[in-house]
Description:
The protein is of the alpha+beta class. Among the domains are: about 5-110, N Utilization Substance Protein A, Chain:P, domain 4, CATH 3.30.1480.10; about 115-180, CATH 2.40.50.140; about 340-385, no CATH class; about 400-465, no CATH class.
Amino acid sequence: MSNDDMMEALRALATEKGISPETLMGALADALESAYKRLPDAYEYAWATIDPVSGEMRVTAQELDEDGEPFGPELDVTPDQNTLGRIAAQTFKQVMMQRLREVDREMKYEEYAGREGDIVTGIIQQTDARYTLLDLGRVEALLPQAEQVPYERPEPNSRLKAYIVEVRKTAKGPQIVVSRTHPGLIKRLFELEVPEIADGIVELRACAREPGHRTKIAVWSNDQNVDPVGACVGARGARVRMVVNELRGEKIDIVPFSEDLPDFVAKALQPAKVKEVRMHEDTGTAEVIVPDYQLSLAIGKEGQNARLAARLTGWRVDIKSETQLAEEEAYQTDEWAQGEWVVDQATGEQVWVPADGGEAVSAEAWAAGDPPADGDAPADGEPVVGDAADSGAADAADEAEDEALDGQGEATPLDEPVDADGNGIDDILDESRELDGDAAADAVEAATDPVGGDVEPEPAEVADGEAG
Length: 468
C-alpha cells in the first residue's frame, strides 16, 4: 500500500470514528513503535514518526548509557513490511485498536463531562430490580433504582427523559448516572416547554418535589408585563400539561415567588386560603392561621401540602385554625399556681411545693382541691386545700346531723312507759302475742315510733339538731 492510499484510509477511518486525523496518526505511530520493539535486536530507546503530508513513517533509535540516558547519533531503524513478521504485525494491529478505543472513550467522556445538570432523552434497553439502562446513542446511561419514581415502570424500547446527575470516568468508558426524581428535572422540562424560562424572562426560584405525587414550584418574572404563572401554565394549560404527561401524571402547583416572607408562605400553601402568617425568626417557624373549614386543605393529604410548602419556603410551617388559636390564647391568659412536685425525704411521698416558699401540699390534699396560689397556710398549720367558708359550713351541718341521729337512736328502758296508756315494752309484747301477725306488727311499730306516726323529720329540723 502506498503512502497516499494509507493517508486516504486514515482520513476515512477518522471520519467514521469521529476523531481527528492527527489523533489517528498518533495512534498509528504508537502502534508502529510497539511493533518495532517486538523485533529481535531492536533498540530499547526508539520512537516512530509519521509525516502528515506524505504519510511517510520512520522509526528512529538511540543508544543508552549506563545511567539509561540516550546518547550518540539518531539512527534510522525503520523496518520494512517483510521484516516485521507475523508477531510484530499482530502487535501493530492490537495496539492500533486499543489506541482507537481509548480515544473513543475519551471523546465520549469529554462530550458528557460538562453536561451534568442537563436533560437527555434515551431509549429503555434493560430494566430489572437494581437499575435501568438508557441508550443515549453513542453511550449508555444508568438509571439506579434509588433515582426512579416509585411505582413507575417504563416499558422497554420507549423513550424517556432523565436528568444527568453524575458522569464517571471508568476503565470501560464513561458511566453516566441519570435521575427521574431530581428537582432539576422539573426545571429542565419547563425550560423545554416555556420559552420565557429559556430566555431568562421568567425564573424558577424554588422547587419542592415528592416524586410521583406532587410538586410545587415558585416562579418570578423579570418583566412586569409578563405573568410568570400564566407563562408556565400556557394557553388552556397546554405547557404544564406537557410536563405532567412526561412525569406520568404527577401534579404540579405553580405559585408566584415573593420577597415578602409572610406573603410567600401564604402563597406556598395554595390552594388553601390563609388568613394570617406570623413569622418567628428566633425559631425559624412560620405560624399560619387559616379558617376552620380550610384547615384540612392547608395541611393536605397526610400533611403533603404543608410539607411541600415548608420545603419551598425553607421555613417550618405551623398551621392552626382560628378556633385552635383562640383556645391557646385563652389558655395562656389563665393564672396557674407556680411550683413543682418534689419527693418528701421524711415520708417518701410526692408533695407540691409552691414557688414562693409556702407550705407543701400532699398529693391527697392536691386531689381534694386546688393548691394555694400564694403559698399561704391556715393558722392551724394545715394546708388550705379548698374554700374555708364552704368547709366550715359543711362541718357544722355534719355535727348537727350526728346529734339528731344520736337523739333518735337512744335505747328506751323496758320498764319505762312508751304509749299513752302507760304500757311498757313488755306489756306491748304480751298484748301482741295475743293478736294476729299484721295487727301485732302494727302495735309494735306504733309503740316504738318516737314520733308517733309515719311522718319523716324535715331536713331543716335535722340540720338544726332537733330530734322529733
